[in-house]
Amino acid sequence: MRRSIPHTALAVTALALALAGCGGQTDSGKGGDSGTVSSSPTPAPSTTPTLTPSPSPSASATGCAPAATLDVHDSGRTVCLSVGDTIRISLDGTAKRPWKPVTADGSGLQAVNSGFVLQPGDASAAFKAVSDGRTRLRSTRPLCATQTGRVSCLGIQEWWVTVVVK
After folding, report:
1. How far apart are alpha carbons 136 and 128 in whole angstroms?
2. How far apart are CA 72 and CA 90, in angstroms?
3. Which pLDDT value is given to residue 17?
4. Dihedral Cα 34, 35, 40, 43, nearest 10 deg
5. 106-149 pLDDT per residue, tens
6. pLDDT in tens, 21-46
7. Which of 118, 124, 119 is nearest to 88 (CA)?
8. Minimal CA–CA distance to 27: which of 13, 41, 15, 12?
9. pLDDT tens digits, one per residue of 82-108
10. DSSP assignment of the chain, as one string?
């Protein structure tokens, strides 16, 4: 059976589509302070560049990121603290889907006063880094609101963060 589209035509079409996606933003002419990227080409360097990824500005070589406050979106992260630092946790819940109090399993952190929890279902905690160590902070809440006389699920949403104190 004969192919209806030759391989070169497919390759040329794919290349054209890939290049069409480049340079779609325009330059405002404000000298680079506009926050947009210029579509004009940049001259290539005279030597072949090495492609080494640059480290993330928020992460260290150990894979930790510094943090002072954590919320529900930080679940699964590993954060680093220095001895003497304090970390605060604020998990926003509801009366029908409340967060359990945050627990700490490990060493290096000491619970401190986190202030008041103003909304029913919220969990608030604070810990001070007192010595080198690793701690897993955890909390859970129901996936579904529980209501008397209604069908509900038994699913649990888990929140956890690993804290490394150095």
Report:
1. 14
2. 8
3. 43
4. 110
5. 999 999 988 777 788 999 999 999 999 999 999 999 998 877 77
6. 444 333 333 333 333 333 334 444 44
7. 124
8. 41
9. 999 999 999 999 998 999 999 999 999
10. ---SS-HHHHHHHHHHHHHHTTT-S---SSTT-SS----SPPPPPSSPPP--PPPPTT--TTS-EE-SEE-GGGTT-EEEE-TT-EEEEEE---SSSPPPPPEEEESSEEEE------STT-EEEEEEE-SSEEEEEEEEEESS---TTS-----EEEEEEEEEE-
Place of tokens 């954060």: 79
Reading the block at residue 95, the tokens are 């009366």
Question: Is the pTM higher than 0.85?
Answer: no
What is the residue whose two structure tokens read 């038994």? 154
Torsion of CA 26, 31, 35, 37, to 10 degrees: 40
How many CA atoms lie less than 13 Å away from 148 in the CB half-sphere? 0
Note whether 110 and 127 are within 8 A (CB): yes
